[in-house]
Amino acid sequence: MRVRHIRSVHELKPADWERLSSGRTVYLGRPWLEWAEGSDDYESQYLLAEEPDGSVVGALPTYFWRGGSGVSMNQAYHPLDLLAVPRLGTEAEADRHLWMPLLLLGSRAGYHGGVLVDPALPASSRARVIARLIQAAAELAETLGASAMALLYAPQAHAEECLAALAALAPDVPAPSYAPLSAEAVIPVATVDTERSARRRREWQREARAFADSGGSIHRVRLSECYRQAGPLLGLLQRKYGADDTDESMTAYLGQQAACLDPWSEVFLERRDGRLTGFALCYLWGDTLHVRAAGFAPDAGPYAYFNLAVYEPLALAASLGLAWLDLGTGAYRGKILRGARLRTTHALVWPPRGSRESVRSALLLPGEDYLDATG
């Protein structure tokens, strides 16, 4: 099996990428990966597994990260910050200089990653493709001078599939640290009405009515139509939770996504007196509507988040006959109370040489987000 390197998803026929990503999340789809290529903080490459006849049977996005600051969301892809710093503090911080540059596999944004494999392949062939691609990634890391390597936010079954493939077919690749990392909150659209209790239904209706009675109005638009007004609201939300993202950087962030993902965007807006006071950005992909980002002004209506980021998207998903509403990570209690189920994601991390034993041990323990989701 040959592994070929390309710099952009545009170098592979769209039909090939669609075949490889069939049934997978928007975060492994061609438009999202095109957007992810646009950051100056990362050097993107894709590893393609090809059979002797030239057919592409697997792909692995990679991102060489030298540690540029960029937006605060980047830190959600630093294994040290995810798994070691919360437990060890200054002890882990002392190892920070060892981690860069870092080669990320599968994803650099979106909190979902993995190896893409032709879904028509049998299990034994899937394992061969996965092992070969991760082996090629390890070789690429060596060539680029990466200090560490990580595949983050992989669904549990896929993460275990990768571990098994490596153990059986790539003995030269060191075994990674493996830890539960996070979770995705998803609502099965078809079962919402049957699973909601009468009490929960009344609660939803109360929150929707309180929002409607507050005088705001809800609109649905494309991201290109609103990102300039939504950017400051996203900046406000980021700073509320301790990030230092500016309104300008968040506006640029949304504008770059609009350039690549606008046809798949569905944005729910709250307006009051002609002003934008809230938004929830979603992406429609396959059988799922993904809720991606949200932001609200201080005078947004009561329960604005749940109306714009749960109830309205859920109604749209149902009207389109979709299977899932994906609410993403974080704020798990509120999402579970509104019918969400959790799918755990996991981390495979190859730490840098010279890492202290306490840091290596911390990389094997569940992340704080995973504990929040399962606690």
Structure at a glance:
This protein is α+β, with helices and mostly antiparallel strands and 375 residues long. The chain contains 14 helices and 13 strands.
Plain-language structure description:
The chain has about 375 residues and is an alpha+beta fold. About 40% of the residues lie in helices and about 25% in strands. The protein is built from 14 helices and 13 strands. It has helices at about 15-20, 30-35, 80-90, 90-95, 125-145, 155-170, 190-195, 200-215, 225-240, 245-260, 305-320, 330-335, 355-360, 370-375; strands spanning about 1-5, 40-50, 55-65, 100-105, 115, 150-155, 175-190, 215-220, 265-270, 275-285, 290-295, 325-330, 340-350. Strands 1, 2, 3, 4, 5, 6, 7, 8, 9, 10, 11, 12 and 13 form a 13-stranded mixed beta sheet that branches. Strand 11 (about 290-295), helix 11 (about 305-320) and strand 12 (about 325-330) form a beta-alpha-beta unit. The N and C termini lie far apart (about 45 Å). The model has no long low-confidence stretch (mean pLDDT about 95).
